[in-house]
Fold this protein.
Amino acid sequence: MTVPDPTTPDPTLLDPRTPGPARTNRGPGRVLVAVYGLFALAATSRAAVQLITSYSEAPLAYLLSALAAVVYIIATLTLARSTRRSRRVAWAAILLELVGVLSVGTASVLDPAAFPRATVWSVYGIGYGFVPLVLPFLGLLWLLRTRPR
Amino acid sequence: MNDVLAYTVVALSGAAVVWGLVTAAVDKPPGKAQLLFAALVELVTVVQSGLAGVRLALGFRPVETATTIGYLLGIVVLLPVAWLWANSERTRFSGVVLAVAALGVLAMTLRLLVLWTPAA
């Protein structure tokens, strides 16, 4: 009988190329989860501050901020979990994120007056180095790449 | 904000970003020195948030107090979470994870410097 050596980590944790079902939380997916986590924090704190301190100033922008926060939190958690079910939720969340950044981005360019206070998605995420625009494409690409076959 | 401390955080976190990307480029997980360095960046960040918190408690009011408090709290959780996430699967990507968090700390510190002007 072999006793597992506690100093040797599970080899599947060390090598992302370990055969088996592709996982969204392995290899480069670790970085994607980290970036989504960073945006979950940024969007959540922004939305919390806006909703608590000055909701009446720009209710639409602030509710969109809150929606963005929820989408980022769900995407972070589901990509990190990487179960069959969480992958499906991740697809939905990231598609919603893509629609959100494209529609809010376009609307804020066409009608800046409607967005007096910035959301994470205003002008396609210009305040965050346009990462909010790139992120959903990377997310969808990663979900495609890790698709179970 | 203490400017010297803030720019120290900027410089240290900038170095952590570069370090994380370099270990990723040479296909190595972060080494012990790199992880200790990330802990040092976190320590200085905590001191920065602590001192700013004291200034706020003593009555200093920046333009956007709520946003400032959010940043001061949020900035200290980034590196510990990234540290754990980077270490739970040690590959070249662990370094990128640390770099992402350090870049967050850098950007938030620069934003805090801008926010830290007294309300009229």
In short: Chain A has five helices and no strands.
